[in-house]
Amino acid sequence: MSGENSLVAWQRIEALFVLIAALVLYFWIGAPWLTFVILILVPDLSMLGYFANPRIGALIYNLFHTYIGPALLMGLGVILTDYDLDPYAFWDFAPIAIIWTAHIAFDRVLGYGLKSPEGFKITHLGRIGRQDS
Fold first, then answer.
1. Which residue from 107, 44, 43, 46 is spatially nearest to 73, judged by alpha carbons?
2. Are 53 and 61 in contact (CB under 8 A)?
């Protein structure tokens, strides 16, 4: 395996562990699995940004496909709950943040990475789809 392929393989293996951890955590908090099924593909609505142009599409897609969003959402739930601003914020936000994390991890396991402004099929994990020869 070449150096670049090895790095991509490590990133995909790491994503598999993140996915497993997200599924275990979702089970542990006791959130409804129907909610998981309904929301798991919601981050892919960010692909609609590609109707504007590839640069805007990549920006919007990448905003919804980094772990920063779910981490901020989880953190907000913790803060709101901890400061008694909303005693249920954590339990409202945690399932959504975990589903979002699972979505990102599953995409990465499949080889769908962050998008390049040059085109949808160019990602940080390499090209996706068939290679034209």
1. 43
2. no
